[in-house]
């Protein structure tokens, strides 16, 4: 009974991963137990360490093990540009293009009134305060091209412009309905340089 319950717990835990249902979770659990216990131990340790040591950057809110993330502590970046993304994964996608040298603000979500996620929950006030800093000349809205991402960009653009801050949006070319993190790098780089 004990063994069965540990296995069930493992399968249930694996099902928490996005896109993983009962069948895949079972396959993963059996694979780890049968072929790769060392890998499973490493995974358990990495998960435990990550959940304990990774917090959020105080300035841009992305994942960070230190108070300020590596990007925010990099004084050589262009302080006139502030790029707003929904998730740390989207930020990583933009970084991989190598064509953006400004700083970031990570919303950790997007407006979704039906789920009770409003301007406050995505840190709009903090973003506005940060954008009002004298060095910031342009806020690039790089939220996703989903309906909620578009609404988020719209609301933030209005708020920024009403305070006299220039707000631009990634250009079209990123497919409608897309999460940035799944879009190819060339397309993102294009959307970035053609922003308006
Ligand atoms: Zn940061």
Considering DSSP H and I runs of 4 or more, what fraction of the residues is helical?
Answer: 40-55%
Strand order, main sheet: write it out: 4-3-5-6
So what's the overall shape? elongated
Unreliable stretches (pLDDT < 50, length at least 5) are: none
Mean pLDDT: 89
Number of helices: 7
What order do the SSEs take from the amino end to the carboxyl end, as H and E? Answer: HHHEEEHEHEHEH
According to DSSP, the number of beta strands is 6
**Which structural class is indicated by helix and strand composition?**
alpha/beta
Residue fraction in strands: 5-15%
Largest sheet: 4 strands, parallel
Terminal CA distance: 62 Å
Radius of gyration: 20 Å
Named once each, the bound ligands are: zinc ion
Family: Belongs to the RecR family.
InterPro entries: DNA_Rcmb_RecR, Rcmb_RecR, Rcmb_RecR_Znf, TOPRIM_dom, TOPRIM_RecR
Protein name: Recombination protein RecR
Domain Toprim: 80-175
Task: Summarize the structure in short.
This is Recombination protein RecR. Residues 80-175 form the Toprim domain. With 196 residues, the chain is an alpha/beta fold.
Descriptive account of the structure:
The structure is a single chain. With 196 residues, this protein is of the alpha/beta class. 44% of the residues lie in helices and 13% in strands. The protein has 7 helices and 6 strands. The strands form 2 sheets. Strands 4-3-5-6 form a 4-stranded parallel β-sheet. Strands 1-2 form a two-stranded antiparallel sheet. Strand 3 (78-85), helix 4 (88-97) and strand 4 form a beta-alpha-beta unit. The longest helix is centred in the first third of the chain and has 17 residues, at 37-53. Bound molecules: zinc ion (ZN). Zinc ion binds next to loops.
